[in-house]
TrEMBL record:
Residues 145-405 form the Methyltransferase domain. It comes from Oreochromis niloticus. Residues 63-73, 235-244, 316-333 have a biased composition (Basic and acidic residues). The gene is METTL25. Residues 56-77, 221-287, 304-338 are annotated as: Disordered. This is Methyltransferase like 25.
Length: 565
């Protein structure tokens, strides 16, 4: 079922189903790992063994259900929880119910491939985004993880812009400009990247400035040299005439020089600002030719040549850096030829932000956000609704634990008049509330493997046992002071506890090393309980995330807007 084909009533019915499921199960998601042993969380909420939980969660509910006559003695349950004790007694039932109450289980998702196909089928007549410029691989100038995210989202954004017939993109929370740069360089879109950090925007601006300055002098030279080399195949060739200088001045290079090999033409030595266009790889270099070419470059983009290091002797990091900078230089030149622009802007964005105050050349645009943190995601949706110049929005939120909730019982999260959750009037009328720990659990949807690994589980275990020690020996165990990242520096559990006590400014002389180790040994046998409990949180994560996203979908539907989920 496509979300755009669902009526508002149908979406509200799906929300009701998820709320009913979470009303039974949310206590598990809201249980704090730090208090796992001090509040005896396992016995409070679970009536089966850790092995049963890990088996059911690990099998993905592929195990066959027990025959009915063997299950008849179990009490009546709702989503695997006993109706009387409210404890979990049937993990397989819970796992199956969680699948059914996730967005895919509710039939409210469409695949990325189907979304792209739908946008292409109804695109405007100006051509597909892929036809705009030559393709390149983003993992040549960013990490593999970031590359996957940027490449996947940028294709959707480009198709969306094409579908809407717009050429401007506003990237909210643009950070270091990865998505913005790729959209500009790959799809020749005019992108405005807005970020609250001046450090991010200044860095992106400076990089673009240097790349643009370099490309005007260097790319025209190498492109002409390569063309002549392919045409003549001669070891000697006439050096090109360069008519336009870096600042619009007339700079002329003339004379004869050695053939420049294309492999060396593409070489970048140190950074986007440390470029050495000197020719290498030929048995006899011509210093006069090199000097002439270097004179065409601005002084601040030239650094002395470094000794050539064979590629086989370069570190993996150095090879990756050179690939990344080489691509940035070539891609910037490509962007210059197509008129694409990436303009980093510094501003704190809210729903009330007036875009025309930030962007003088604002036209109809697509608003995007990759990893829009906390309240920034709902703010972009509110802005989309309020700004007629925004033709579409494509938002991927994150950090749900940083969302402010309007109906927080403690009244501490929503300190401003506008909160991040709930967004829809439908859930606001119900005073819907998740809780910070539950929203933190929603971030675990992709961490099933990580939580099963020893290092992260041990870190959680150490913190929970420390809380027991603080309860037993220190009256300030509920102190607002945080332990911080002590685990990564600790050599053992004893060392961890002593570092934590010093961080909390508590008297560590109260406990001997053997006293501390005894705590570890006592609770170590119950570590599988914590592991199993966290896997239950992982199981519920897609349902909590689903409620947050359904709230946003419902909000857009309440405004009479067509959306794709």
């Amino acid at each position: 079922m496509k979300p755009s084909s669902c009526s508002l009533t149908e979406i509200q019915q799906q929300i009701d189903e998820v709320i009913r499921f979470l009303s039974i199960t949310l206590n598990i998601a809201n249980a704090h790992t730090v208090e796992f042993y001090t509040h005896d969380v396992w016995k409070r909420f679970v009536a089966v063994s850790p092995e049963d939980v890990l088996s059911a969660v690990g099998s993905g509910n592929d195990q066959q259900r027990e025959p009915q006559h063997r299950r008849s003695e179990q009490p009546s349950t709702t989503f695997g929880f006993c109706n009387d004790t409210k404890r979990l007694v049937d993990t397989q039932e819970l796992v199956q119910a969680a699948k059914e109450h996730s967005l895919p289980g509710l039939g409210l998702c469409m695949s990325r491939e189907n979304l792209l196909q739908g946008l292409r089928d109804t695109r405007s007549e100006s051509g597909t985004p892929e036809e705009t410029v030559a393709a390149f691989e983003p993992d040549e100038f960013m990490t593999s993880k970031k590359s996957h995210e940027v490449q996947s989202m940028s294709e959707v954004v480009a198709c969306l812009a094409q579908h809407c017939g717009v050429n401007q993109v506003i990237d909210v929370g643009s950070g270091k400009g990865y998505l913005s740069s790729f959209l500009s360089l790959q799809y020749a879109l005019r992108v405005y990247g807005i970020d609250s950090s001046s450090t991010n925007t200044h860095g992106a601006q400076e990089r673009n400035r240097k790349l643009k300055k370099f490309s005007k002098a260097y790319q025209k030279h190498t492109k002409a040299a390569r063309t002549q080399a392919e045409a003549t195949h001669s070891p000697q060739e006439e050096l090109i005439e360069k008519k336009t200088g870096l600042n619009g001045d007339e700079d002329v290079l003339s004379g004869n020089g050695p053939r420049i090999r294309s492999q060396e033409e593409e070489r970048v030595l140190t950074s986007s600002s440390d470029i050495n266009p000197a020719v290498e790889g030929h048995s006899e270099q011509n210093p006069e030719t090199d000097e002439l070419f270097l004179s065409a470059l601005s002084v601040d983009v030239i650094q002395p040549a470094s000794p050539r290091v064979p590629p086989s002797q370069l570190s993996a990091e150095e090879r990756e850096r050179r690939k990344r900078e080489n691509l940035e230089r070539k891609a910037q030149s490509r962007a210059d030829s197509t008129g694409a622009v990436f303009s980093p802007l510094t501003s704190y964005v809210t729903a009330e932000t007036e875009l025309r105050d930030l962007i003088n050349e604002l036209e109809d645009a697509v608003m995007v956000g990759l990893h829009t943190c906390g309240d920034l995601a709902p703010s972009t949706l509110r802005m989309f609704v309020a700004k007629p110049e925004l033709a579409a929005v494509c938002s991927v939120g994150c950090c749900y634990h940083l969302l402010s909730e309007e109906f927080d019982p403690a009244g501490q999260e929503c300190l401003q008049s506008v909160c991040g959750f709930p967004l829809s009037q439908y859930l606001r009328d119900q005073s819907c509330f998740c809780g910070r720990n539950a929203r933190m659990s929603a971030c675990l949807a992709l961490e099933r493997v990580a939580l099963g690994q020893g290092i992260q589980m041990e870190s959680l275990f150490y913190r929970a046992v420390l809380h027991v020690i603080l309860r037993d020996h220190y009256s300030s165990y509920k102190s607002e002071k945080r332990v911080g990242n002590v685990y990564s520096k600790a050599k053992s559990f004893v060392d961890y506890v002593r570092r934590a006590l010093r961080r909390l400014e508590l008297d560590e002389s109260k406990l001997s090393d053997s006293d501390i180790q005894d705590y570890h040994n006592t609770y170590r046998v119950r570590m599988d309980e914590m592991h199993a409990f966290n896997m239950l949180k992982v199981t519920l994560a897609p349902c909590i995330e689903g409620l947050i996203l359904l709230d946003r979908l419902c909000y857009l539907k309440e405004q009479g807007l067509v959306v794709e989920q």
